[in-house]
Amino acid sequence: MTETPQLGSFVRELTIAEVIDETADAKSIVFDIPAGSEEDFRYTPGQFLTLRIPSEQTGSVARCYSLSSSPTDDTQLKVTVKRTVGGYGSNWVCDNAEPGMNMHVLAPSGIFTPKNLDQDFILLAAGSGITPVMSILRSALAQGTGHIVMLYANRNEDAVIFKQQLRDLQQAHPDRLTVIHWLESVSGLPTAEIIGNILQPVARKRHSYICGPAPFMETVKAGLRRSGADMHLIHTEVFSSIEGDPFAEIIIDDTPAEEGGEGPAKATVELDDQTHEIDWPRNTPLLDVLLSKGIKAPFSCRKGECSACACILKSGEAEMIHNGILDPEEVEEGYVLGCQLLPKSDHVEISYND
């Protein structure tokens, strides 16, 4: 087995408490939270865990799996994993995860999470995309007062994850929750026209959260557009395989940006309602600097391919080494990726709270 770099001080370890068969090809993995580590694993509905999975070829691989547990009701963490064809991580988890096993993880992260649960929602999921949506749904029903319309697409009835839980939630909240099951075996693939017609009575001014395969997400976004939805209120969750090793220890490059160049920049960083004043070496991404100082900034891939470390550039100048996930509109609004961000001015102000 290939040796892997030393694990970073930010890496945590969890013990599997239970493995639940959800469908023939999907399992939920329940983790105990160690006593005294509750703050490390505080999360908001819609976020995910990054798991370190053993690999004989590379030593380990990192995979992100959404939390299907709810922070409002559950004292344990639960991720739900569905096998994918050729998917090394999902097949390893479904074949090998068992109670008592320890796994290295990163802290919960992700921005696919509502800022306010006390509002009306549209939730749209397909297949294993139900996982973060289920966390949002349960949390909104427990803490909010709004009405929720949920459309959940699957190939057939046997593939419906959380079938009984959804039935129970609908029976417990008949005035607040409408669940629409779309089965490909019965109705074929959904179209933008049909989705638009279904959602037209409720789409205006509601936040919509979408998770599932790319073709499904494009279809429902087109349907929402046809329904008159405000496209600025649409949120999507996109996962891609993580390259590299986000669990590896941080290496700080404190050499000047150029020979004879300036020393480190200064950064003011707002995170979790705290303000940090730090020196920022000009050749080191902001995320690495924060982690090296023990500041628990959110992240997952460390390669600019996910949105877990997204933050707002409030003042000063900075540039990203690579951006594989933020769209032009988000960049225009000031969003940047902390794992790819280098300072260009002497002082930069960043916020993770907006």
Automatic annotation (TrEMBL):
Keywords attached to this entry: 2Fe-2S, FAD, Flavoprotein, Iron, Iron-sulfur, Metal-binding, Oxidoreductase
Obligatory cofactor(s): FAD
InterPro entries: 2Fe-2S_ferredoxin-like_sf, 2Fe-2S_ferredoxin-type, 2Fe2S_fd_BS, Beta-grasp_dom_sf, Cbr1-like_FAD-bd_dom, FAD-bd_FR_type, Flavoprot_Pyr_Nucl_cyt_Rdtase, FNR_nucleotide-bd
Presence of the UniProt keyword Transport in the record: no
FAD-binding FR-type domain sequence ranges: 9-115
Domain 2Fe-2S ferredoxin-type residue range list: 265-354
Native organism taxonomy: Bacteria, Bacillati, Actinomycetota, Actinomycetes, Mycobacteriales
Name of one Pfam family that matches: NAD_binding_1
Name under which the protein is recorded: 2Fe-2S iron-sulfur cluster-binding protein
Keyword Electron transport carried by entry: no
Gene3D superfamilies linked: 3.10.20.30, Nucleotide-binding domain of ferredoxin-NADP reductase (FNR) module, Translation factors
Species, as recorded: Dietzia aerolata
